[in-house]
Amino acid sequence: MSTPDPASTAIAALMRAEELPEAAIAAFGRHHAQLVAGATGLIAESELSPVDGLPDANELGERHAAIGRSHLDAAVVIKLNGGLGTSMGLSRAKSLLGVKHGQSFLELIALQARAASCPLVLMNSFSTQADSLALLDQLPPLPGELPRDFLQHKVPKLDQQTLQPVTWPEERLRWCPPGHGDIYNALVTRGVLARMRAAGIRVAFVSNSDNLGATLDPRILGYFIEEELPFLMEVADRTPADRKGGHLARQGSQLILRESAQCPAGDLDRFQDVERHRYFNTNNLWIDLVALERLLEAHGGSLALPLIRNAKTVDPRDRHSTPVYQLESAMGAAIALFAGAGALRVPRTRFSPVKTTADLLRVRSDATVLTEDGCVVPATSHTPLISLDSRFFKGIAELEKRFPHGPPSLRDCRSLTVEGDWTFGARVVVRGHVVLSTREPRHVPDGSILEG
Q1: Alpha-carbon Rg for the chain in angstroms
Q2: Closest by alpha carbon to 32, among 302, 260, 264, 327?
Q3: Residue 152: which of 27, 37, 17 has the closest Cα?
Q4: Distances (CA, A) of 175 to 10, 38, 155, 172, 255
Q5: What's the rounded Cα separation, in Å, for the pair 184 and 296?
Q6: Helix (H, G, I), strand (E, B) or coil at 126
Q7: Average pLDDT over every residue of 21-30
Q8: Could you tell me which residues come within 8 angstroms of residue 426 by beta carbon, excluding any fewer than 6 positions away?
Q9: Which of 3, 38, 156, 420 has the highest Cβ tally under 10 A?
Q10: Cα torsion at 20, 284, 219, 289 (round to 10°)?
Q11: What DSSP line would sit under 394-414, residue for residue?
């Protein structure tokens, strides 16, 4: 009988002290053992082949929509709601940020769920749960009798030198979420999968809470049902702007997902070749919960998703703090575990996340329209490309300070590049391609029309 590794035993004890379930401890233990053994989670280009063509959502029609509508009572929407938006200077749930006409992501998501008559369940983190549920308490009731949320697990950050849990005065900074791949374990350990199945739920549509384009489309639900798929990933065409993000590929006959953190340095050029690897994961996933139950049973109760080793600092606000590894997994990586999993090409409108203040400015502006059912859709056939100087517009407070009257009109804008410290007046209109550049603080007067 092999002797238990003392370090692994200590990590397990640390996690048990935080009342984490055994499935979460085992999953982290597998990744930690891989890290100690020298695993990097890298997937070489030589192991992969590109995906050449896929079924297209634009070709789905009323027949698929009718099938989908007839199965709405067996579907649930799950929103990943664990992010704080620290890259934009936020300190609470990102989904509480006002995004359109003063309404937050979460308010619009709840409106979408009510319009679709479909239950909504949030996967919260230990940092977002209280604030998010407090907001839901203020809104009209949501459809269904399911729990409003379940809590994803947390795992220790590892000191890069010792590969052991980092020591740090601020206790909460010693822990991190294990990536959205934790959803499969958390659904089981929190008892939510069993509750869903008992309520007759068969299909889960999962997406990020900051992607308001990810609504439950009856046509895609109908396609998923008709094709009897166990797992479906929505993918969109990669453009040069997406070259740094993950992509869909084949490993033998199986579809897989390769994230940027899994690409060896020597393969970077081919990884970023958007003509070779044509599709990226929108993180909109459709999951057959019966197939998930069977897969979990076959894997001993938790899914062994590929390791993603993310190099960070223990305090994300302080780049001089202790270097750590955060061991994570990607939800979409499960596509490699479901035999017969599929992918569907979808229009870019189903992928409109807000990751930066530039994204937020565009969505808040008249370049998008808010529909009665809570959808944020483009106002025109083009999407303006917005680039804001990170020295002056990185955080929400900085953005709102420099746009004190709200966003300019961007409906007729093709691109807006702001270099330097600019403050915008009221009723500013941007048309065509515009570049603003300054070395000194400058002000755009009220009523200005910027045209290029």
Answers
A1: 22
A2: 327
A3: 27
A4: 15, 22, 6, 6, 32
A5: 8
A6: coil
A7: 92
A8: 405, 406, 446, 447
A9: 156
A10: -20
A11: SSHHHHHHH-TT-PPB-TTEE
212 residue type, one letter: L
* Cα–Cα distance for residue pair 286/224, rounded to 1 Å: 8
State the amino acid at position 9 in one-letter form.
T
Under DSSP, is residue 225 helix (H, G, I), strand (E, B) or coil? helix
- Whole-Å CA distances, 323 to 2, 96, 163: 32, 30, 11
Give per-residue pLDDT as tens, 146-196: 999 999 999 999 999 999 999 999 998 999 989 999 999 999 999 999 999
Closest CA to 418 of 406, 427, 409, 430: 430
**Dist. CA 342–CA 429, nearest whole Å:** 44
Q: How many CA atoms lie within 13 A of 205 on its CB side?
A: 28
How confident is residue 4, by pLDDT bands cut at 50, 70 and 90? low
DSSP letter for each residue of 295-323: HHHHTTTS--PPPEEEEEESSTT-TTSPE
SS3 291: helix
What residues contact 165, with CB distance under 8 A and at least 6 apart? 11, 14, 156, 157, 158, 159, 174
Instruction: Tell which residue, 279, 302, 285, has the closest CA to residue 231.
Output: 285
> What is the pairing mode between strands 98-100 and 75-81?
unpaired
Averaged pLDDT for residues 300-322: 90
From residue 445, give the alpha-carbon distance in Å to each of 84, 393, 452.
Answer: 34, 19, 17
Average pLDDT over residues 314-331: 93
293 exposed, middle or buried (CB, 10 Å; 0-12, 13-18, 19+)? middle
Separation of alpha carbons 257 and 235, rounded Å: 11
Catalytic residue numbers read 355
Residue 57 is encoded by which pair of tokens?
């959502």
